[in-house]
Amino acid sequence: MTNPLQLTAADGFSFPAYVAHPQGPAHGAIVVLQEIFGVNAHIRAVADGYAAQGYVAIAPATFQRVQAGVDLGYTPQDIAAGVALKAAVEALPAPGVLQDIAAAVAYAAQFGAVGVVGYCWGGLLTWRAACTLDGIAAAVPYYGGGMTTPAEAIRQPRCPVLAHFGDQDHAIALDSVMAFQQAQPTVQVQIYPAHHGFNCDHRAAYNPDAAQLARESTLSFFAQHLR
Q1: Residue 186's domain spans which residues?
Q2: Does the pLDDT at position 3 exceed 70?
Q3: How does residue 75 score in pLDDT terms, banded at 50, 70 and 90?
Q4: How many Å is the Cα radius of gyration of the chain?
Q5: pLDDT tier, 19 (very low <50, low <70, confident <90, very high otherwise)
């Protein structure tokens, strides 16, 4: 079952989120953080997939502070639009969109322990959330663009983190992933023979084998920590 939700951040800003509920009682909740394409069909499908595994899944619209109703595809024009929107959000005064993620985590907590998973830009936001926000039991960033930079790699996570990367990622150099892994010995880093966006079956970079392995690992990780 799915339904729209309106959340309110600490500063009073109101924003929508897509919510998917499991068929039976929930055994926790997962906040799903979007790519640069908004809460589009792929992200909604990801949330539905976690709901099918017994979690309440909440996908907040993290572009809402700069543009409402973003739902992009994967054309070059869509990519350019998403990059511009990401830059606009990243330019917001701190804490920016992290307070929206905090509101989603707080809402999710009524259903049990809370995990956060994010893809691309959402992976970076997942990493930042794991390092700065309370109430997160486990976090799983997928190919978080920017999270392997020196400025991000010095952050210290407050919860267990499992990070997925592709060794052919045009946006995240493999040597930066290795440096991140060395700087973060408590983070479980998994590397796949895949490109950026390998989890998204709407993109040419989709790699079903890597996506399946990462999903199995992620579900196992959440089952371990969301109790």
Answers
A1: 2-225
A2: no
A3: very high
A4: 16
A5: very high
Q: At CA 84, angle to CA 134 and CA 194, rounded to 5?
A: 70
- 172 contacts 145 by C-beta, under 8 angstroms: yes
Closest CA to 57 of 49, 47, 67, 66: 47
Measured in Å, how far apart are the chain's first and last C-alpha atoms? Answer: 23
Residue-wise burial string across 162-191, b where 16 or more C-beta atoms lie within 10 A, e elsewhere: bbbbbeebeebeeebbeebbeebeebebeb
Look up the CATH number of the domain holding residue 87. 3.40.50.1820
What is the domain count for the chain?
1
Task: Compute the distance between CA of residue 56 and CA of residue 160 in angstroms, rounded to an integer.
Answer: 20
> Global pTM?
0.97
Catalytic residues: 120, 169, 196
